[in-house]
Amino acid sequence: MTTLNLQDVQGIVFSGYNKYMSCSSYYLLQINDAKKTKAWLKNLLDQGQITHGEDKATDSTENRLNLAISYSGLEKLQLDEASLNSFERSYREGMYSAHRSTLLGDQNGDAPEQWLWGNKANSVDVLVLLFSKDASIHAASQKQHQAAFKKAGLGIVWHLDAGEKRQDADGFAIEHFGFADGISDPVVEGFPTASGAAAIATGEFLLGYPNQYDGKLTQIPISEQFGTNGTYLVLRQLKQDVAAFWTFMDEEAARQGITADYLAAKMVGRWQSGALVEANQDTDPKTVSNDFDFSKDPDGNGCPFGAHIRRANPRAVGLGTSDAESLTVANRHRLLRRGRSYGKALENPRNDDGQERGLVFICLNANIERQFEFVQHTWINNVKFSGLYDEDDPLIGRVGNFTIPEEPLRRRVCGFQQFVSTRGGGYFFLPSLSALGILGNS
Amino acid sequence: MQQNPMTVITAIKPDSLQALTDYLKPIGKDIKKNDVIQFSHYQQLHYCSFFIIPSNHPSGNLSATPALLVFEANIDGEVSTFINDLINDNSVFMNTVYGYCQDYQDNAHLGSYLLSHDYGANAFYVAHPGQGRNVIYEQQQLRKDIEQYVDANRSTLLEQPEKIRETIANHFSSTSKPKPQPFLNSNGDMIFKAILAVLVLTLLGGLFGFLGSIAQIIAIAVLVLLAVFAIVLRSHESSDKQDSRPWESPNISAVQDVEDRQLQNHLTSVIEIKSGFFRLLTLKIVLFGINLVAKLVATKGDLSGIVTIHFARWVILPDKKRLLFMSNYDGSWENYLGEFIDHASQGLTAVWTNTQLGENRGFPDTKWLFLQGGSRDEQRFKAFARNSQLAELIWYSAYPDLSVKNVANNRSSHEGLFSSSNLAAWLKCL
Ligand code: HEM
User: Fold this and answer.
1) Relative to the CA of A270, which ligand 1 atom is closest?
2) pLDDT digits (tens, 9 = 90+) for A234-262
3) Domain topology for B3-127+243-336+352-397
4) Which ipTM value was assigned to this complex?
5) Domain coordinates of chain B in residue numbers?
6) B-chain residues within 8 Å CB-CB of A378?
């Protein structure tokens, strides 16, 4: 049993604050004066403004704040070379670097040169995540922090407002295409949120703890004191073209003699309610559950192999000679998702209003290469995933082909456009509170 | 037709290293359109690569040896035929390359020069033994045609499975029947088990005296030898030091630069064999075992659970001091190394536990050759593998858009046109 010092871990590790914080904003900042930034950091800590795991929200909680730092940020905070080199390679190279872009599929329209932020020209050093209980509190908080950034020598490169959340009756957030999101979340050993048997070792999401490989410790940057209780945070601004998505579903469904909801559900792997797509279903059963491992659907007749959730987490099928082996392998590549939608919901999902909206995709992991990049490259983008030939994730990919296994013959959907594109992104380190203290005092 | 490994290893003239690099590199950068050599001409060629092993790789221990040029090829049929085809077809390329190498004479002697420097492989794995390059091409085209036909006619095809098959088979009735697979693909497994059973029975029978007194003495001697081996092994293992230095060698950027440019990748690893007779012997025995498994058991696109390797080989370098590993695989390096750890950590630990990056920079601590430790130490193992890697100058794949599973699926699609024995599975191939 792992016991965590919750006070040392930033709160976003344990929760996306969905229950009490209806508003959030993401500030992407550049350090222009390291000395001032350090003083600001120290001040935030001294005032107890950085939310940690012990700091439980209640009805009266107004704000939450977390903070992460990119590699260039650490450089500007003047860490020495040996310290800098002790971080993992993907983090040091940065999401925008040529090799990482190839792996992530950020090419052509998605290439870093096209991004709004996070590329060479608009590099980002610090990420501040602000959450508030309601819109008016949020407005006040934003104003106050923006003023503080200025004094701290921090320039705002970009910022994203999640705005007010959409939620369904079960309390799940609804992303812009209209699907319940945030359903499947790894149950992690030692997390206060984990009740019952935890499936995933602490070291997959926090540095300094046993991981999924025989309980080895994932490499810790700098020192035990600095690295323990920290983790890596991946952020991607993913624009969603909602009208194009539903317009295509309508047209293709008409061509194939099926419904748009059926086609879209097959692409996601869940119906809009969040219910898993199963074989011989034509409509949403609206029974949401995460208690499945695909072993009852080995041929993908329910949830296609190529569907988003089956790629993002193949569970017990296809990664080994037995269900158990496959599950073991799948669980070495899990992500803690902590993002939210940005931009206003599109009123009529078939009718574009010219405004940008999408997902602030955020995930936490102890090893970016083995977790986030692996999921994106080897599962989501991989046209050969699960024995397929020429298709990637139909929801968030770029290829535009999709196979739906059906009896007696598969159905194929071909030549559709890309619905999600990358607008910015970065790799960050989410330090423990003690590490932030070390940085603030350095 | 059988697939064979060619591994031509030649010493580079000391003053020609740069010139050779400058000659090969641009070809590798533009493998499809360069005007020096078109590898797709050679219809027996599945994969090939050229790379240089610097004299100081992986450590400075061997600096007296010259840099080596390695030309790896995975081919259908005989190595000598391939070499002759290359020399006849593109003598300029071949003579330019080997003109930079020691002991090269002239075009007339080039064939025998190359053959005499071919070290083949100590262990060789082929995902689909018997599948010639042209067969792979033909079956890919056939599968595409079937796919298009099904796409265009799906609504009218939707009937009883047997009827669907009949309609499709009729449409493709001019297709010729697939050649039967090599004998070992279906029977090797049994032969392997039989060999093991005979060995164990002989040993036991000998031990208990059922096979006469001479056999008994031999059996006891074998057991004593095994015990001695185990003791010596453990004493080596307890004094070996795993690599605890920083994680990365300066090579890695160069290696990353040539990685992930397409769906498949090539891995080249050169590593020192730990010093002394014992480690070299152990390594040879392990490679012999792996080669046997590859020939007899792993014949269906699956090397002990790894389903992404097209061709792989291990070669002990002529200096007997280094081990070369080459692999042509699907997907990313991270995935490949992950699969190794997830599914094949015993075999790979048994090989690489005999190696080191340099003095006191050994493979991750291992117990009992493969039973504990070794590659199970995920990050240390990945770092070890990364640090042993070299970037290739030229790498060619005859079918860069096909995965190991695609090749198998294409063959099944083809076979199903002529047999309804596995109808449900066949329909899923389409
Ligand atoms: C705009 C982009 C995206 C949209 C609209 C989207 C939507 C969804 C939806 C509707 C679900 C099912 C609900 C749930 O299980 O929580 C889901 C699950 C998931 N998504 Fe995404 N997603 C997006 C991008 C990504 C990216 C970039 C990744 C990772 C690289 C990712 C990884 C996952 C994972 C790991 C799951 C859970 C799978 C499981 O454990 O069953 N998603 N996503």
Assistant:
1) 12
2) 999 999 999 999 999 999 999 999 999 99
3) Alpha-Beta Plaits (3.30.70)
4) 0.94
5) 3-127+243-336+352-397, 133-180+404-429, 184-239
6) 331-332, 334-335
